[in-house]
Amino acid sequence: MREEKRSFVHMMNLLMGIQMATVSVLLIIFAFSVYHAARKETDIAAENVLNIYVTQMENRIQKVDTQLTIIINEEMDLYLLESGDDMERHYASMRLSQYINDMMAIDQSADIFVITEAEHNICIDAKADNLSYSEKNRVRERFMGYVQSGQQTEGWKFQEIGGTFYLCRAIVREHRMVGAAISAESLLKTVSLRDIDTYGFALADTDGIVRAYAGEPLFEQKKNISVNDLRLGRNMENVKELLDGQIKLYSFESRSNVFRHLYRNALFLLFIIALLCVFDLYFIRVERKQIIRPMEGMIEDMERIGGGDYKLRVAERGDNQEFSLLSRTFNQMMDEIVNLKIRFYEKQLAFSDAEQKYIRLQIRPHFFLNAMTTISGLSAKRKNAEIEKYINALSKNIRYMFSSGLHTVALKEELHHVENYFEMQEMKYAGCIFYFIEVPPELGDWRIPQMIIHTLIENEYKYGISQGNSLMVLIKAGTIEHQGEEMLLIEIEDDGKGYPEDVIEAINHGNGRQRGDGTRVGLRSVKRLLELMYDRGNLFQISNVEPHGALNRLYIPRCPVNQRGKEYMDEQGIL
């Protein structure tokens, strides 16, 4: 009868249990012996943290006060908002809008700046990135109400706007107002909580009602909760006032955090460490016998198998159940791997992956060559302003192309990139091309291969447009049943001269691979790209339309079979 082997896991669990029980008893004795000293130390640390927090928040509010003063100093433009001349008001509004947006781009201490003029119903604003448009509009309405009623908040006031609490300051002069607002939640985020994540912070008004909270979730987050409710179950609390007592910042810490400071008793800690060292020595001895030596033998066998000795199998080592099961399972897997001829499949996968890289790199050169040609042409005409505008648009296209790898993006994202490309090409072919996009909003999130529409539009510029000639391009999308499933149909139609018959035959009935003459690389790349990503053909078709023009049809299934993300492309050196 075969002897039943002992379970190594059971043995390790038993040893670890003994260790944890010993450590727990020692730590309890240690905690109670120095509890009062640790409590005092914790209170001091909490007060220091709160002082730092309050200082940072006050500095932020002071920055916003300074920015408001700077805006008010723009007296001429603010005065022109009341001008009877429409053009003066318009240009003054533009200058003020640019001014506060530039200020917001440099420093987002405020969540929003608002400049209003009641007589002509003018409202100018600049918002931070964290503020949504709906929140911005609600704040604008509140500030517009101030100037219409003549109400002022020369100092900072805590106000609720649309269910969100803000610190607001509005300075009204006659029919004009300059104001700023900081949300309570944003104000609490002034300080990073990564290094002080053991604390909970609450921002409350003068009535003791909590308006925002951050840090460790020591309490259930509900609206209009009182500070008194937060004190339940906690024995550590600190409070500081801001803005002459209009706002109070509370910090809370649970009793359990006191025990984090119990490490101060060095002698007792050394005793615990010594005890653990003795226990660990025994643990290491058992570990070496039960794990390390059997594992070294298994690794040696695996290295020989990896070197080509596929007939070798891992021998059973040790006297525990886990290694016996591991050895048998590994040997079974080796038998299956040999029979599957992994080398052949790895070679095919590597070839397919290399071909995908080639297709992706093949699409991009056309765009860069055309871009360099356009810049050269504008430079020859000494159109420096147009060159700067073109380079700005070009940078957006480059960032988009290199933002990710061979994968899919939302249809609306691709169309936004294509519109930017149209605007960029307008500088080279001014008034030569007119485009229309008809895409239902509900299809905007459908995932399509990145750059696929761009490639076809670039093909329009390469073969269908020239100076002095005009071209109309229509891009539309909808869903259709194709090859037994619902797909997104993208149609790109123009009224140009159409495709040559040999190109239509090659794309629709050939394999879509590049020919030696180097023409129509983009069309062949699109066809091959769809075949590789979706493992099927006939997803790209081209034709001519009457009386003249070309039509491109792209059938996009909902989910790709193969795609590569940005991380993979970075590793492979493709991007």
Describe the structure.
The protein is an alpha+beta fold. The protein contains 16 helices and 16 strands. The strands form four sheets. It has a five-stranded antiparallel β-sheet, with helices on both faces. Strands 11-13-14-16-15 form a five-stranded mixed β-sheet. Strands 7-6-9-8 form a four-stranded antiparallel β-sheet. β3 and β4 form a beta hairpin. The radius of gyration is 35 Å and the shape is flat.
In short:
By secondary structure, this protein is α+β, with helices and mostly antiparallel strands. It has helices spanning 8-33, 35-72, 75-80, 86-106, 133-149, 184-188, 227-230, 266-306, 321-340, 342-380, 384-401, 411-425, 452-463, 501-509, 521-534, 566-572, and strands at residues 112-117, 122-127, 153-161, 164-173, 176-183, 200-204, 210-215, 236-242, 247-253, 408-410, 433-438, 447-449, 471-482, 485-494, 540-544, 550-556.
Task: Give keywords.
51% helix, alpha+beta, 575 residues
Number of strands: 16
The main pleated sheet reads as: 5 strands, antiparallel
Please, what is the average pLDDT?
77
Distance between the termini: 63 Å
- What is the oligomeric state here? single chain
- Roughly what fraction of the amino acids lie in strands? 15-25%
Sheet with the most strands: spatial strand order = 2-1-5-4-3
SS-based structural class?
A: alpha+beta
| Coarse morphology | flat
Helix share, percent: 40-55%
Unreliable segments (pLDDT under 50, ≥5 consecutive)?
Answer: 571-575
Radius of gyration: 35 Å
Helix tally equals 16
